[in-house]
Design brief:
The complex is a heterodimer of chains A (about 100) and B (about 475). Chain A is elongated and about 50 Å long. Chain A contains three helices and no strands. By secondary structure, chain A is mainly α. Chain A is about 80% helix and about 0% strand. In chain A, helix 1 packs antiparallel against helix 2 and helix 2 packs antiparallel against helix 3. Chain B has about 475 residues and is mainly alpha-helical. Chain B has a domain of about 220 residues. In chain B, strand 1 and strand 2 form a beta hairpin. In chain B, helix 2 runs antiparallel to helix 5, helix 5 runs antiparallel to helix 6 and helix 9 packs antiparallel against helix 11. Chain B is globular. Classes of the chains: A mainly alpha (about 100), B mainly alpha (about 475). At the A-B interface, helix 1, helix 2 and helix 3 of A face helix 6, helix 7 and helix 10 of B.
């Protein structure tokens, strides 16, 4: 059997990749993918810990997180499409009209 | 679901139902009645307020300890529904004037309040996460409500990306805390720590990630980058609602999680809180000085005020004054809400089409032309600085008292110094209003006038009765632990 710690390390790596992706990529869709990766890293950690503690609740939480992520996708993609219609670009570096 | 479960989340159930009905009504109502959605939304909020009011004084936990109904949650629910009512009053005329009079505004606002209400009651980390998303997702849409205005769209996307990023931190933090203790219930975590079965190191990392996520939501430096842009680009009534509601909800979660459930981590986290608080007060007030746009100035001012509330969190772990800390931060949230809504109502009254009338120089001559609005703005600015006899002074007084009781003299000194610093930019508005010639234009709107006048009166009058008010707030938090 694969030890639990391997899953946790994998999930930490996934989370880091997601966070770095959000910070360094400039395309709104790719940034969004990074965020999804972070949420799924949390899902992996939930399932692994649920197995370690032998409680079912951790696996239930994954469903909650998936549902929330789906709601976020709905709103986020709608926003990105709206921005694309007005600006013909979803590069976040070009979103710089608000300054002060 | 037992009866206790049902009654303890009755305000939430009612408001979710009401918002959903309102959403459908808006689609299926073929003959448009002027302002019907707004009025119905207001009626829904007043009813919720009444239900939350009748729940005041009970102290139960429901849904296997996932939900708590106590004084803390009742107090915040009243604050949130009140903010919602003001949010409707500020928006009604504004949306028409700006040509964005779409009915979805009101159901979205109600859904966001549902999230806040749930967050105030959450006694389980996974409920905290769900409530946080329920309050944030409608706000992302509301920030972009003025589409196809590019500024509003940009604000919405920035808020969405950073909000979702913060949500990722929260949920990973919850996962690690779950790993450390085998439970996400706050009482379960306390019990796990007490019995020694919890992995404290993992719990520390988890709660640190939760702190980062919530720090984004309440705009603590260095997680504040989105705030000025989002507050600037979003429609002004949405900004006002966001600045009060979302921040108060974020602090509700911070207080509940850290002060009530994680005192074991005090040794490691108090220095972090100290630095966050000092940094937020300094950076918020310093950057606000150079702003020329009033929306951006108030955005940095709201960052600075998050720093002040954060001061109360620093005493965490010292059992004797924890309830004092919660009471003073709840009281400060009230003073901040009243003052902030008042100031934003004046901003909305002056705002013209396409972002006109938002510069600080547009306030020149306001004192002569519209003495009532100028006087109200003067009161709000003084309250922001914390000059007696305003509510802002009393709020800061109780906060500083808590900090000094906790023995953090230097933090209190930083708080006082940054308050002095903030006088510079708040008084600049006052100087512009009264000591310069100009010809500002006010948009006639009875609801907004009402909010300004009632707000100014409340800031002065409530400060006189602040002792009984504070005692009432203190009683509200007594049964929290």
């Amino acid at each position: 059997m694969v030890p639990i710690s391997y899953y946790i390390i994998l999930s930490a790596i996934l989370f880091t990749i997601g966070a770095v992706c959000v910070l360094i990529r400039r395309n709104a869709i790719i940034i969004f993918m990074g965020i999804e990766l972070m949420l799924n890293a949390a899902n992996l950690a939930f399932v692994a810990f649920a197995n370690q503690h032998q409680v079912i609740s951790g696996q239930i939480f994954v469903f909650f997180v998936i549902a929330v992520a789906a709601a976020e996708v709905a709103v986020g993609l709608a926003l990105i499409v709206t921005i694309f219609r007005t600006r013909k670009s979803i590069d976040v570096d070009q979103l710089n009209s608000l300054k002060g | 679901m037992t009866l206790i479960d049902f009654t303890s989340i009755l305000p939430l159930i009612f408001l979710v139902g009401w918002a959903s009905v309102l959403l459908l009504l808006d689609i299926f109502l073929t003959r448009k009645v002027e302002g019907l959605t707004a009025i119905l939304a207001g009626v829904g909020l007043v009813t919720t307020l009444a239900i939350a009011g009748t729940n005041f004084g009970i102290s139960t936990s429901a849904f296997n300890g996932m939900i708590k109904a106590d004084g803390f949650s009742s107090y915040l629910q009243i604050l949130f529904t009140g903010s919602g009512l003001v949010g409707i009053a500020l928006a009604y005329g504004y949306l028409k004037r700006m040509g964005i009079d779409r009915g979805e505004y009101y159901p979205l606002l109600l859904y966001s309040i549902c999230g806040m209400i749930l967050l105030a009651q959450a006694a389980d980390l996974i409920v905290v996460f769900l409530a946080l998303e329920l309050l944030s997702i409608p706000l992302y849409v509301l920030a972009g409500f003025a589409r196809p205005d590019p500024a509003s769209e940009e604000a919405a996307l920035k808020y969405f990306l950073l909000g979702a990023f913060a949500g990722g931190f929260v949920v990973y933090g919850v996962a690690l805390s779950f790993g450390a203790t085998g439970t996400t219930s706050l009482t379960g975590i306390v019990a796990g720590v007490a019995s020694g079965s919890a992995d404290i190191g993992l719990l520390l990392v988890g709660s640190g990630l939760i702190l980062i996520g919530l720090g984004f939501k309440v705009a603590l430096v260095p997680f504040h980058m989105w705030t000025p842009d989002v507050y600037h680009g979003a429609p002004t009534p949405v900004t006002a609602f966001m600045a009060v509601g979302a921040k108060a909800a974020g602090f509700a979660a911070l207080l509940r999680i850290f002060l009530a459930a994680l005192p074991v981590l005090a040794g490691d986290l108090v220095p972090v809180f100290w630095i966050l608080s000092a940094l937020t007060m300094f950076a918020g007030n310093l950057i606000a000085i150079v702003q020329e746009n009033i929306k951006r100035m108030l955005a940095y001012s709201s960052i600075a005020h998050a720093g002040y509330i954060m001061m109360a969190m620093v005493v965490f772990g010292q059992e004797l004054i924890t309830s004092d800390a919660v009471a003073s931060s709840l009281f400060y949230l009230l003073t901040y809400a009243v003052t902030n809504f008042g100031a934003w109502s004046v901003v909305i009254a002056l705002e013209g089409a396409e972002g006109q009338g938002l510069k600080l120089e547009d306030y020149k001559g306001l004192g002569k032309k519209y003495p009532l609005f100028a006087a109200a703005m003067l009161v709000f600015m003084l309250s922001f600085i914390g000059v007696p006899p305003t509510l802002g002074f009393m709020g800061k007084f109780y906060l500083f008292r808590t900090v000094l009781e906790g023995g953090f003299v230097w933090l209190a000194v930083i708080g006082v110094l940054t308050s002095l610093l903030s006088a510079y930019y708040y008084l600049r508005v006052v100087v512009n209003m009264y000591m310069h010639e100009g010809d500002p234009e006010i948009y006639r709107d009875r609801l907004i006038q009402l909010v300004s006048v009632v707000g100014a009166a409340a800031v002065v009058l409530l400060s006189i009765f602040s002792t009984p008010l504070f005692r009432w707030v203190s009683r509200a938090v007594l049964k929290m632990f």
